[in-house]
């Protein structure tokens, strides 16, 4: 019928062809060598940091993009096709190995089977192409290489390129020919101050909450200087000598004009100080953000917890930029340990795969490996763990297949830095971080580092299986098994009922810290008896050095949640994150110590305002509430199978959504009823009930000891009537 309509109406024919062409055009996107744009962009972004108007570069080695890239793809055409070509860089074009003269912006590809090669050189920016035809379009199916192994054989035909290492092209969202990757900028939105007050020598402007962007001065007139002192706190903005960031602008303006600051800053307050006769009518800002859509949701019967969730969302929004960064004032860098937590939060809020993969690639850089990621031993291990997590949540196996060689070379570097006992120990140039904690020893072979290496080796084995490298899989699994045995042989102390902190000169130290012990719980390395012992001897024991950073509180509370201590964790969450809210926080901090008072909360690194008051790792309730209260987590790649194990933790009710690759899982849970709408994949609901549960659309199976399970089908709604039963709660050790 469609063909008859087209024959009857030439206008419809034109419209149909136009729509087809537009559809083909919309499939085109700018492409490049995978990982190169990510490295180039992160180099640019991380070099925007300033302190006291001084350029402040990163501490680690920078890699760069390959300046010469060959792109190719084979096509089978039923008819000749006109193709437009756009590039970033000098280029040449070949069809079936024969070069075309000049720099053709449009070519005609004959019908039949053909290979198109486009070679691009660009030293300043990443070599990239955008190809737009009816069926010939640039996308990730194009193959790319930085090597030049092309030659013409004796028959005059292009040689087989199978010997060259070709990878699938990288891309993002540059889907228009004029949307150049080198011009990448985040979107901005105007925002306005909530109050303006004169002070001694300046004007203090309050934007009402922590924010990030470009200040715009309105109605600037006169001759003189305008200095903008930025502050996450009022005290910082008013302290001209100690404010971490400021802008100094000189004007000679006869008529009023507006001026936009050239660089984005983090602030809530801005103190405007002028000299000469220059005057400023008002200021506003352009809020810079990633523009991602929130998919995850959480609401409950406790309004303080709702507030904690909302501020966590906003904290995470501010620190989600081109990449997941640590903090918006300081450092504005991509740190692997910080990013690892951001990936997990992302899976429960945005489920934005592109920002995860960009950040992973930017952190890894290129071969050869000459140092740990960010120079930090533990941050290297988090990088390995993030890759398998990415596969588990998204189901994207192609990412591992493409970048597994970079995992291999990174792991070989790590294994080459073990001591004679086969343990990781900080060598010259290594930073053993673990956490910001006073008096935390970094001497010797630390149990926490061995545990992270063991988990990384297990990850390498799993990834080797996915790419079909059986030899590597066996090797890495064996390494992991050997190290796991060493971990318990060397570090487990029966008297202390815990893993000790370190081995120095072949001997256990007496110190017990929380780090290795809490990770071993949610890695399921302990026996049931050891796990219960550690809960009381370490996690619930106030004599063990407490954690004061949200960074490690993330893992401490995860370990407790993994043991069913949601009631206890909710109280801790309200005390810790709620404590920041009571002090007026509008985003969550890098460090919070309840024992500090006043301006002590702002000091760090020996500087009065060195502490970040908006740090990504402060947003961990996003992850904890999604995974351990709503209770949703994947059990196989891409949520093909998953579990839902709700835990109210003392709440009367909660509801929310957890994003998956193919839709959102929605859950409402009260003390008497659960309502669940599933997405794709097969789910397993696990819960406890004092009474026999009833569900009309599913079959509830009694598993004993008050536990019940129900298998859930894709895209189906369920209502379960039950009576909540709390798990046994732990009590603090004396």
Layout of secondary structure:
Elements: H1 2-8, H2 10-27, H3 36-46, E1 50-51, E2 54-55, E3 68-77, E4 81-88, E5 90-95, E6 98-99, E7 106-109, E8 112-121, E9 128-132, E10 143-145, E11 167-168, E12 188-192, E13 195-199, E14 202-231, H4 234-237, E15 245-260, E16 265-274, E17 282-288, E18 297-300, H5 303-319, H6 336-347, H7 353-364, H8 377-394, H9 397-415, E19 445-446, H10 447-467, H11 470-491, E20 492-493, E21 498-499, E22 502-504, E23 507-508, H12 515-522, H13 528-539, H14 550-562, H15 566-582, H16 621-629, E24 632-634, E25 641-644, E26 653-660, E27 663-670, E28 673-677, E29 682-688, E30 700-704, E31 707-712, E32 717-721
Parallel strand pairs: 25-29
Antiparallel strand pairs: 1-2, 3-8, 3-10, 4-7, 4-9, 5-6, 5-8, 10-11, 12-17, 13-14, 14-15, 14-16, 14-17, 18-26, 19-22, 20-21, 22-23, 24-25, 26-27, 27-28, 28-32, 29-31, 30-31
Helix pairs in contact: 1-2, 3-7, 6-7, 6-8, 6-16, 7-8, 8-9, 8-10, 9-10, 10-11, 10-12, 12-13, 12-14
